[in-house]
Write a structure and sequence with these properties.
This protein is α/β, with parallel strands linked by helices. Helix content is 42%, strand content 18%. It folds into two domains: 71 residues, no CATH class; 164 residues, Endonuclease Chain A (Endonuclease, Chain A, 2-Layer Sandwich). The longest helix is centred in the C-terminal third of the chain and has 18 residues. The N and C termini lie far apart (50 Å). The model has no long low-confidence stretch (mean pLDDT 91).
Length: 246
């Protein structure tokens, strides 16, 4: 029987999505190396080692699958919805604060996907994204509006090229002209963390939006909804976005 500490450590390290996909692929008869491709490359060695230390190698495939299903179940929970506010002087009495959202980004273990109209260097979220993009185990993907970033350059707001340079390691996508020749506005503002929870907000990535304005967002803890939003954005890329080179 696997040592209890091993599965417990593995459960703390894996996300629910990773545990589910590993179990699915192992159930389908794949080798461990094949199954581990569902885990980001920066995390695979650690996951492999933790599986082995827990006695969950392929010589005990059924037990490995059972433990992974248990980890998936632990991470699965009832959808929760929390309001997230910005108000002057923090007058909002219920829910979370936009100014605290950057902690969610810095705590990401696997992925950060965000869409915004623009960035300002004064934003705590901008700083958090730079830190996340520097971590090889975290996949960062950003959608931004070309006109908002590149028209009338100012020192306080990065251009799309500067975003790609300063967030080296992240995938930066900016709006481009679609089939009718028009370039759409990227006004969708959200952050998705670890394919698990989603923050949809009226706030831009700026100090005023995080501390001074009246802004309202909704944090939704629901991996199915979060992954649907991520999938939809990926499907739009070929039609509405272009990748920015640093």
């Amino acid at each position: 029987m696997a040592d209890q500490a091993g599965p417990r450590d593995l459960g703390s390290y894996l996300t629910g999505t990773e545990a589910k996909e590993l179990a699915d692929h192992l159930s389908g008869g794949e080798t461990l190396s094949q199954a581990l491709k569902v885990v980001s490359q920066a995390r695979r060695t650690e996951v492999r080692q933790m599986l082995q230390e827990a006695g969950l190698g392929l010589d005990n495939r059924d037990l490995a699958i059972a433990v992974l299903r248990a980890i998936e179940g632990v991470h699965r929970h009832v959808t929760t919805i929390t309001p997230v506010w910005t108000t002057p002087h923090n007058l909002a009495e219920h829910g979370g604060l936009t100014a605290s959202t950057h902690h969610l980004v810095t705590a990401a273990r696997e992925s950060v996907i965000c869409s915004t109209f623009n960035f300002q260097r004064s934003s705590a979220l901008w700083t958090a994204l730079k830190e996340a993009a520097a971590r090889t185990e975290v996949n960062v993907r950003i959608y931004v509006d070309t006109d908002a970033a590149d028209s009338r350059p100012e020192s306080w707001k990065p251009t799309t090229t500067e975003i790609a340079t300063e967030l080296a390691g992240a995938v930066i996508l900016r709006t481009c002209a679609h089939s009718d020749g028009q370039r759409p506005r990227n006004h969708a503002k959200f952050i998705a963390i670890d394919h698990q929870f989603l923050l949809v907000t009226s706030a831009n990535f700026s100090k005023s939006a995080e501390q001074l304005n009246i802004e309202l967002g909704i944090r939704i803890d629901d991996p199915i909804l979060t992954q649907r939003v991520e999938t939809q954005m990926r499907s739009l890329e070929a039609h509405l976005y272009e990748r920015v080179s640093s």
